[in-house]
Structures are given as structure tokens and as C-alpha cells.
Design goal:
Distance between the termini: 40 Å
Structural class: alpha/beta
Order of helices and strands: HEHEHHEHHEHEHEHEHEHHHH
CATH architecture: Alpha-Beta Barrel
Helix content: 25-40%
Largest sheet: 8 strands, parallel
CATH class: Alpha Beta
Shape: globular
CATH topology: TIM Barrel
Number of strands: 8
CATH superfamily: Aldolase class I
Strand order of the largest sheet: 3-2-1-8-7-6-5-4
Strand content: 5-15%
Length: 314
Amino acid sequence: MRSGLVHTSDYLKRIGVPDIARATSPFDPGYDPWTFAGHLQQSAHLMSTLKISMACWMVANETVTRAKVTLAREHGVPTVTGGGPFEIAVAQGELPAYLDLCADVGVTRIECGQGFTESDLDPREIVAAARSRGLEVQMELGKKHDGGFTDDTLSAWIEQGQEWLDAGAVQLVVEARESAQGVGLFDQDGCLNTAYAERFVDAFGFATVMFEAPNKPSQFALLNHFGREVHLCNVRLEELLRVEIYRRGLHSDAFAHGNLRPGTGEGRPQGRPLPEREAQGRPVPEREAQGRPVPEREAVEGVPYRSQTKGVRP
């Protein structure tokens, strides 16, 4: 018998999953507005920010782009543009026009970087220009085409990150591209250099530094090493829930890690599973006992598919 009085949040507390602050910044690679809206409806409470990635938003239907930004804001999720358009704007001598566009579209933050261009950036000047338009700034650390960090380049990027923070940037991002192989903290086989990752955390802390984690191996490697506090970004929207169950120790691979496994629940010692009889102690719903599936309409009752897409047209 369904009462609506038994909730997932209560159960998670009971098995020892702690409340976790938002620590994933997913990205929208250019989804249609209905898919985008569905992800926000389902997972906005798990998003620290939402990256409108690459330059897709600049060539998509502008009405849809603006609707996406507005929809994210209505769900309480700040939006940030990717670093690529910033670099191109600087290279083309059109940074003021780019900042004007970002502000008018309504994004919360821009990402700056020098991942594939060379330019003499003045962090204080850029942050001031962004702030004058109501925009926050985050800085990406690392090159896209120069391979993994070395001792020398790592120190230089950490120094540059501090310069941007001193200038007023709110967060830093460690580059990993779309492959997390042969770039930044990852070697050609995609293995994480944990010692280098620790250097960033020691310098800036989890609240300030975010690690790009574009695929399952990079996501799991960072969570396995640092635990649930690590801040991940550039996670595809459809992978967000997988990352968050892993962060909470609800994934089979994560459950083996002491820094991810749920702790002590209500009256339950850490790591002790529910005894079989206790797990099965509640009555089985009549429909399930008779092998009848839940009707599709009932299964999605109360979750309107397009409830957040008013005014958006394909």
C-alpha cells in the first residue's frame, strides 16, 4: 500500500549516507531543450554549477539557449560558459563583445583559460571587466595539447591559479579534455597521477579546485582517491546520477572503499548489510507479489515530462 510517507532521503540516512553538498558541475553538450529540462527536473539538487559547454550555445537557436539559461536559474543552478569561446574571443580581439554577450544571455560565470592559445592575460583586468557586467570568473589550469603535467609545469600552473584567485576568480578547474588521457593529471593510459592531484588540493582546497572528469575511469579514480568531498566537473549530464551514487557509496565498486562506503546509519554498525530476513521484513506489495508490472502512467505519476519547457519550441 503506497502512502507517500516513505522517502528516499529518509532511507539514505538510515543506511548511513550523509548529507553531501553539491560537488559536481555537469555540462550540457548541446542537448535538445526537453532533454535538458528533464535533467534539471531530475537532478538540479545535485549540480553545483552547469556548464553550457564548448561553443554549442553560440550556434544553437538563440531563443533555446536563453531559455536553457533561464531554466537553470529557475532551478537554482548557476551557469558557466566553457573556456574555449573565451580563448577565441581573446585571440580575435573581441573579449569585451564576448563578455557583453555572456552577460546579456544571462549566464552566471565565464571560464577563462589558455588551453590552446597563447596570450598575455591580466587576471585583474579580466576579472574586473567580467564583474562590471555582473559575471563571475573561474580559471582553467592546463594545456589541451601539451601532454600531462610535469613537476615544472605543475608548479607554474599552481602559481597562475593563485594569481587568478588573488584577482578575484571564484574557482579553478584542472584540465582533462574529453578523454582524460595524455593530458593534465592523466597519463597516456588514463591513469591518474594522484601525487599531482594532491598538490592542487593542498594548494587550494576542495572548495576552490575542481577536477575535470569527463569519463567513468577519471570520475571513479578521483572519487576513489579523494573520497566524496572532491569537486568534479565536465561530467556529462547523463552521467551525473552515476557519479552521485558512486560518491555516496551506493555503487558496487564504491562500496569497497572506506572513504565512500556509507557510515553508521540509524542503529546500524558501519558496513553491516541488512540481514536477509530484516531486509524482507516488510509486506510485499500485492501487485509485485502477483507479478504484475506497474502501469507506465502510474510509474511516472506526478512527474510531468515537459512541465519546465513552457515557451520553448524545437
